[in-house]
Amino acid sequence: MMGQPLDLYTAHFGLRERPFSLVPDPGFLFWSDTHARAFSMLEYGILTRAPITLITGEVGTGKTTLIHQLLDSNREDVTIGLIANAQGDRAELLRWVLMSLGQTADHNAHYVDLFGQFQTYLVSEYAAGRRVVLIFDEAQNLTRDVLEELRMFTNINAGKDELLQLIIVGQPELRDIVLRPDLKQLAQRVAASFHLPEMDQEGVGAYIRHRLHVAGATTNIFESSAIAGIYEITRGIPRLINQLCDLALVYAFTMDVQTVPRSVIDQIMKDGVFFGGGQEHQVTASFVRNRGAR
């Protein structure tokens, strides 16, 4: 069996497709209570014209999913630009920003020229009845100078109306960075914020059942004891849940069983094939130690 394509387990379990692919798929979008609140905070920030909205969360908790949901919201009065992993000086930042908005950015242009082009674009969008929202993903990697430049962006306005709003998204350390004394003026512009936590065990179970249902499952393939193990190992992080559940279905398929018991999860951890988002040794050792103590 191991020599056959892995997607054959879909037929084994009566599924139309793999339910735990690591490739983002809007069709599998799962709204936990915390994800719904985080998205509401994003909408609140836009509707109230907050200068800066801050969203943080651990790697794999679904921040990018929220961003893409916002991009797909098709707001007629808002133009959205997404900038991920921006690097470089102030002029390079402006090039990233202009390109995210579909504008050309001359590589030979100086900062003043690029800023003038950016400001002209904001004014033209405002005249057309649209505000511009810039989303900066992985913002914990931005330098202090770039973050300070973002604060300066929020000074662009037309009377009492804001032409530009920022959504800054990143890992938990981003919140600590923004709260540093030398970035106090930036923190004062944050009018809406939300930290996206990991899911609890009940949420993990609902997440797994949801994805299986979307993929065509008519029964509970994962036993409750297996879900408890998945929660312990993944700490409720969706990306890790997907990795481990996909492996569990492969293992159950090779064992020719129709459900995933706790023993399958134990075997995966014993074999060391779950990498745990780059923390495989730490996760596996902790899990084995805790299981052995029972």
From TrEMBL:
Pfam families: AAA_22 (PF13401)
Xref: InterPro entries: AAA+_ATPase (IPR003593), AAA_22 (IPR049945), ExeA_AAA_ATPase_DNA-bind (IPR052026), P-loop_NTPase (IPR027417)
GO molecular function annotations of the record: ATP hydrolysis activity
TM segment ranges: none
Residue ranges of domain AAA+ ATPase in the record: 49-200
SMART domains registered for this protein in UniProt: AAA
Protein name: Type II secretory pathway predicted ATPase ExeA
